[in-house]
Amino acid sequence: MVRIMSQQENGFVADSILQGFDLNIPAQTEGYDGADQDGNDAANFVPRPHSTATAGASNLAEEDGEEICSQPVVPFVGMIFDDLEVAKQVYNDYAWKLGFGTRIGNTKYNTARGVPKDTILSRVFECVHTGKPAAECKNAAARSKEAAAKVKEATVDMTNIGEQKSRSKQAGSEMDVNESKQRNILLRCDCKAHMVVGKRNGLWSVTVFKEEHTHRMVKLAGRRRYYRSHRKVPEEDFQFLQTLHNQNITTAQIMGCLGSVRGGDPRTLGYVKRDVSNIRTMLREEVSHRDMSMVIEYFERRKAESPNFFYDTLVDSNNAVRGLFWVDGRTRALYPKYKDCVFFDTTFCTNKYNLPFAPIVGINNHTHTIVLGCALLPDETTETFKWVFERWMLAMNQMHPDHIMTDQDQAMATAIDKVFPNSIHRCCFYHVLHLARKKLGPNLGEGHPFADAFYSCIYGTDTIEEFEFCWQHMLRSFDMIENNHLNNMWKSRKTWAPVYFRKSFFPFTSTTGRSEGLNSYFKTLVRPSDSVWNFVQQYELCQNLMLDREDNAGFTMETTTAKLWGSYSIEKQALKFYTREVFDRFQKMVQSSTRFYPIHVEAEGLCFNLVPNQDLDVKTYRVAVNPEEGWYTCGCNMFEMCGLICPHIIRVMVHLNVQQIPGRYMLERWSAAATTHAPEPGTNTIRFGVPTTNTLKYNSLCRKMNQLASDACFDDDTYVAVSRIVDEANKVVATMLKAKGQV
């Protein structure tokens, strides 16, 4: 008597998100119902104790190029199993080697009194091709007749097919979502192959085993694996799949990654693409059922781990969450350094509810884009924008931004006027010009006289008086006084014309390109069908990537140096003070300063006209100097706009042999010191060597476990030892958590 012991299977272990998920359950698409359809009682089959299946399995293994040692156990009458699942696995392994699929046939339950209703006495495992072919033909004929009737009703006039639109694109028409898809039907070959197991004295034994099939075996392993009984997602693959799923990788790419891990070919996997798609659908459905609650729970955990984390919700009359705003503790600590200039814009198509994504964006000391706050909004009304700005100010201790740039949205502008009455609000210059080109058409075409006057008025004026005079002169000269769009531009000129912001801090930009660039990049991480929970996860990824970029810039500044362009002491001073990105900009200013020659102007105080060198078509600028007070002013206003002294001031300093740039012109927000006192993620640890947040603990343990697995996987003994240690560690962790009441 041979007894097959129960072993721990490597198959897919469902967690709470996939309870009851089993790839081996027959689907309607394969056309079988799980019953013994030939009508014969299992006891009528005559078993063969000495089977020829071993030879068949061996021949098939040789054809497939598989090793003979991988042959499964061939069932026989009298074989003993510890439990029913082991019996099922043995028969399924046998079926895999021969090239057929299995399913559960009849199951007999114990109906005696006092016995649980689900007590099984015997079960039949049979070939999936069981059943009468005649019944299949009858069903197929009925399906064909029904399909032909549908085709006849939907006859299309082919004479003008080129002029017809598809039904889903015709105005006023709707797609027929109830039309059923043509399904394939599994072949019924009246196959009698099956195995019957019964329970005796607490053990399961084979009482009947019939091996003859009435159909051809599927010899190719790549095709054989499509039988449902042979499709199973191992637990380790599921964990990897879930990780890839959370990163919004496509199903085809996930199959490629899993195939690479398993030897380089997705066809070697014990499951198919449809199984991965089904699992991803179930993961999404689980999230969709409690999407917003998962987000709120995550925010609460973040707040518990970091008290400076801030979030708030906008709820409707039914107490349903309609909007979200959140900002992390590190950003709140850095905000006072970077509140001098922020950008605000919205974008759509980032989540399945089409909630507008509204990041509040700033510029850090490396000139990188940073997120100073984030919101998901129900709409784009004045009241909603006002709610966002009020929540933002609540998080930032009512410190209003000095300068803010948006597009020309009127609701946004109204909210800014109410919440930030003292902030300088500027509209995106790009949007203004884009709308002007759209409204004025050919008048702004290349080479048109009006276009030359238009752009000269905007870019070629240095004072407000000069701009306003040129604008009115342009309208009169080209008879455009009655043009509605130009009149609207004139009325709103103080919100967009560059001349009105010559002394306002909008460093290195006149557009909301930073905010729009972040929105465009973020759309590469999310899809319109994503849940809010997935959106928040991808937002955290985006934040981490920004921190990684900042770390890289800090590392470069600490461990490398830049090559000096000249031998000026002010250049050396700038190299030590500025971050590398800002110093690169300053160095270009030093190079540009050589294009000018200072000419002393006889006037009150010390003044210089910066005259361009010969053959250079650039403007002349005036620089005023107060050597005693260390004041330098230039007509280009670059320091006021960007926080860096301009090439004209640099040229005057070199001319006057100034050895140090005055401190008032060295803004700390462009230096490494801007983030010196900022709290790093995971700092303020309570215990030495123990990360503060759960995420950091998880990441630390993953790194250690990955290294351990990498070292132990090359030897059987080390693998067994590490596996045993991990099992023991699981017991210890479970005991500790139970003692603390966390289980």
Written overview of the protein:
By secondary structure, this protein is of the alpha+beta class. Helix content is 41%, strand content 13%. It contains 23 helices and 17 strands. It has helices spanning 53-64, 84-98, 133-153, 221-224, 235-246, 251-261, 273-289, 291-305, 329-338, 382-395, 410-419, 429-440, 449-459, 464-477, 484-491, 513-523, 532-559, 569-577, 580-593, 638-642, 647-655, 694-712, 716-739; strands at 3-4, 80-81, 102-109, 120-127, 194-200, 203-210, 310-315, 321-327, 342-344, 357-363, 369-376, 403-406, 424-427, 596-602, 606-612, 621-626, 631-634. The strands form 3 sheets. A 7-stranded mixed β-sheet has the order 7-8-11-10-9-12-13, sandwiched between helices. Strand 16 and strand 17 (631-634) form a beta hairpin. The chain is elongated and about 115 Å long. The model is unreliable at 7-69, 151-177 and 681-688 (pLDDT under 50).
**Fraction of helical residues:** 40-55%
Low-confidence stretches: 7-69, 151-177, 681-688
What class, by secondary structure content? alpha+beta
Total count of helical runs of at least 4 residues: 23
End-to-end separation: 44 Å
**DSSP strand content:** 5-15%
Strand order of the largest sheet: 7-8-11-10-9-12-13
Count of DSSP strands: 17
Overall mean pLDDT? 81
User: Which value, in Å, is the CA radius of gyration?
Assistant: 37 Å
The largest sheet is: 7 strands, mixed
The 3D shape can be described as elongated
Q: What's the layout of helices and strands?
A:
Layout: E1 3-4, H1 53-64, E2 80-81, H2 84-98, E3 102-109, E4 120-127, H3 133-153, E5 194-200, E6 203-210, H4 221-224, H5 235-246, H6 251-261, H7 273-289, H8 291-305, E7 310-315, E8 321-327, H9 329-338, E9 342-344, E10 357-363, E11 369-376, H10 382-395, E12 403-406, H11 410-419, E13 424-427, H12 429-440, H13 449-459, H14 464-477, H15 484-491, H16 513-523, H17 532-559, H18 569-577, H19 580-593, E14 596-602, E15 606-612, E16 621-626, E17 631-634, H20 638-642, H21 647-655, H22 694-712, H23 716-739
Parallel strand pairs: 1-2, 9-12, 12-13
Antiparallel strand pairs: 2-6, 3-4, 4-5, 5-6, 7-8, 8-11, 9-10, 10-11, 14-15, 15-16, 16-17
Helix pairs in contact: 6-7, 10-11, 13-14, 18-19, 19-21, 22-23
